[in-house]
Amino acid sequence: VGEQSKMKVFKVIPRVSRLLIKSFFIRLWRKYLFKDFHPLFIFYNYSFLALLIALPYAWKIGKAFVTGSVVNTEPLIAFLFLATSGFQALIFAMWMDMQDNERLYK
Length: 106
Prior knowledge:
Layout: H1 9-35, H2 40-67, H3 73-100
Helix pairs in contact: 2-3
């Protein structure tokens, strides 16, 4: 009651976020590739790669939408395929990760 934190929130959030992301990738590589191979490693990496490759297509489609120009079918099909398969692989990898770590909660 009446106490105030001296923590600088805008300094802490980026540092903790960086630590969480770094620890996630270290766990992904150490636990699921080197220690004991698990297919979720492939799903996570494919999803990150597919979603990263889909970004330029999304930019091109968004730019065409804002300017009112016509978009070719190639960027639309590429974006839809990459975004859908990347998102599906990400969800499937998260699901497999939750199943693999289920034993820790018992």
